Amino acid sequence: MIEGRIIKLDAETRRVVIATAQGQEIDVTFPEGATIEVSEPETMGTMGGELEDLHEGYWVEVEIASHNSDGSCNCATLVSVS
């Protein structure tokens, strides 16, 4: 599990760069069907969402499904915690 803040988001290419508290920048691709959960303020929980529901600056927890030869990662699950 990776925790960090979204610093770049490209919904068209389904790529996100996440900055961790340790100063790493991790390039993540979201394949079709990846699970995305976003904050639901009314219940203080999360609900199903889309990549387009995310914004730069959001804090997220990401479960990595696989690593690519170029160093980027494919995401299985993302939960927005902000």
Feature tags:
single chain; five-stranded mixed beta barrel; DUF5666 domain-containing protein; OB fold (Dihydrolipoamide Acetyltransferase, E2P); mainly beta; 82 residues
Protein architecture, described:
With 82 residues, the chain is an all-beta fold. The protein has one domain: Beta Barrel (OB fold (Dihydrolipoamide Acetyltransferase, E2P)), CATH 2.40.50.140. It contains no helices and 7 strands. The protein has a 5-stranded mixed barrel with strand order 1-2-3-7-6. Strand 4 and strand 5 form a beta hairpin. It starts with a strand and ends with a strand. The model has no long low-confidence stretch (mean pLDDT 81).
Proportion of residues in β-strands: over 45%
Count of β-strands: 7
Q: What is the CATH top level name?
A: Mainly Beta
Shape summary: globular
By secondary-structure content and strand pairing, the structural class works out as: mainly beta
Percent helix: under 10%
State the strand order across the main sheet: 1-2-3-7-6
Reported by name, the CATH topology is OB fold (Dihydrolipoamide Acetyltransferase, E2P)
Number of domains: 1
Spans of at least 5 consecutive residues with low confidence: none
Instruction: Give the radius of gyration.
Output: 12 Å
Distance between the termini: 17 Å
Secondary-structure element string: EEEEEEE
CATH superfamily: Nucleic acid-binding proteins
Q: From the 3D coordinates, which CATH architecture would you assign?
A: Beta Barrel
Enumerate how many helices there are, as a single number. Answer: 0
